[in-house]
């Protein structure tokens, strides 16, 4: 698989830390010019610093991708900074723990807005630029939670990610005529700061055949493949990256 992204322009959302930071670093290391979009100015600036320190190119926009206006803003900023867009790498997401019986309307609305509705608004805003791009790609971070599994307290998150997979399939059909592929990655348990809410790494790793949590780079390299020329005939698909956790029929096996 080629990792040469020289000259390609990538927008990476949710790139302040964890999986998003790894995605941004991996693509920048391959030569892509990266627009970072994140809610936290401090974490976004750190991602930018790391990329530039390694010799890469990155610009930063701080915003919350919970609205259509924000999606339009970040696409416009990418075009202003780099003059085009080849890769829409949508990783931004939230998963506040809240059991169904106590679920608040604001929690549900914000989860659906950031995790699901932003897929629509970003794609819509990016479409004119992607139609002009060389080997245009849309790759979205989905999850095994929702499409494959469930976790108590995350019904709202599960619903949003199941919706993301439906979006990926339908968008792939609609955008195929422009040569734009649309795919996703479904992470399992990944060692990020956000994962601390679910338990300690040693306990969580017991149910994973490969015996460890995934790393943010595991997801980033899966995205790198789906965005590569070698994946040009793949669209409407999601790639599960979970260390084999979904393979056993019984969790005790």
Could you please describe the fold and organization of this structure?
The structure is a single chain. With 253 residues, the chain is α/β, with parallel strands linked by helices. Helices cover 41% and strands 15% of the residues. It has helices spanning 18-29, 41-53, 68-82, 105-131, 155-175, 201-205, 216-226; strands spanning 9-13, 33-38, 57-62, 87-90, 137-141, 181-187, 238-241. Strands 3-2-1-4-5-6-7 form a 7-stranded parallel sheet, with helices on both faces. Strand 1 (9-13), helix 1 (18-29) and strand 2 (33-38) form a beta-alpha-beta unit. Helix 1 (18-29) runs parallel beside helix 2 and helix 4 (105-131) packs parallel to helix 5 (155-175). The longest helix has 27 residues, at 105-131. Pfam families: adh_short_C2. This is SDR family oxidoreductase.
